[in-house]
Amino acid sequence: MNDHARGTRLRTGSLVLRPWLPGDITFLLDAYRDPAIQAGSRAPVADGAAAERWLRDQEEGRASGLRHSFAVVDTALGDGPAGNVVLVRPAPGSAAAEVGYWTAAPARGRGIATQALAALTDWAFTVFAAYGLVTLDLLHQVDNEASCRVAEKAGYGFAEVLPAHPPWPLEGHRHERRAAGPGR
User: Fold this and answer.
1) Which residues are bridge partners to 172 per DSSP?
2) Cα–Cα distance between 50 and 46 in angstroms, integer?
3) What span, in angstroms and rounded, lies between the C-alpha atoms of 23 and 148?
4) HSE of 166 in the Cβ direction (CA atoms, 13 Å)?
């Protein structure tokens, strides 16, 4: 994995996508009190110990090159994170990876998720193309219409309906975006 990817900070408009920091624990706890974030989370953060574990998991994922989670800071709103975007690769050299995101309640409706997802997508295809990455998948529950809109605005076309699978009680959608280039 490219060492420069570990400490990456991305900028797009008023957004800065940066690695998560130990000082972000309070933000995480506040964000994860939101039922919408809890409903879409595979790893809920209910207390300080869980927040520390979550931050440690993000750092370990970044160090392994398999998980690149970014705190999304909207400088127009302040210095604290307004959300999260993440790229998850199942193994080095995988042709496909998964992306995800969430936005804290006070930051919703401002286009932050779409803008952050687009920046993450461009970065992922640029940095990991040499490692074989050609497809990004975005998954969400079928009742999450906002995620459908974000996916489509960021260029992720609807690919299929997925059956319900624990921990998700409802069917889901898989959206897909392929890298631009010859034969793709």
Assistant:
1) 141, 162
2) 6
3) 31
4) 0
3-state secondary structure the chain: CCHHHCCCCEEECCEEEEECCHHHHHHHHHHCCCHHHHHHCCCCCCCHHHHHHHHHHHHHHHHHCCEEEEEEEECCCCCCEEEEEEEECCCCCCCEEEEEEEECHHHCCCCHHHHHHHHHHHHHHHHHHHHCCCEEEEEEECCCHHHHHHHHHCCCEEEEEECCECCECCCEEEEEEECCCCCC
Residue whose C-alpha is closest to residue 178's, from 111, 133, 143: 133
Q: Which of 155, 65, 74, 154 has its CA nearest to residue 108?
A: 74
pLDDT tens profile 139-173 = 998 988 999 999 999 999 999 999 988 777 788 99
